[in-house]
C-alpha cells in the first residue's frame, strides 16, 4: 500500500505541488474477529455497522470524505487510487 500510494503521490506532487493526499481510514468493531482483506469485505462490515469512518462516533462529520458510496463501487484494482482536482 505504502509503495503504491507513494508512487502516485510523488507523480501528482511533481505535477501540482499544492496537492493534498487524502485516504480513507475506518474503525472496525472489536467484536469482529477477522479483519477485512479487501474493499468488498470492508463494505460488508460498513453496511452492517461493524465498520465506521474514523472517529465518526466521537466527532461526527470531522473525517468524512465525500463520495464514500462511489469509492465502494469502484473496482479496487483498476480504480483504487485516483486524483481529483478541487477548487
TrEMBL record:
Natural source organism: Ancylostoma duodenale
A Pfam family recorded for this sequence: Glyco_transf_49
The protein, known as: Uncharacterized protein
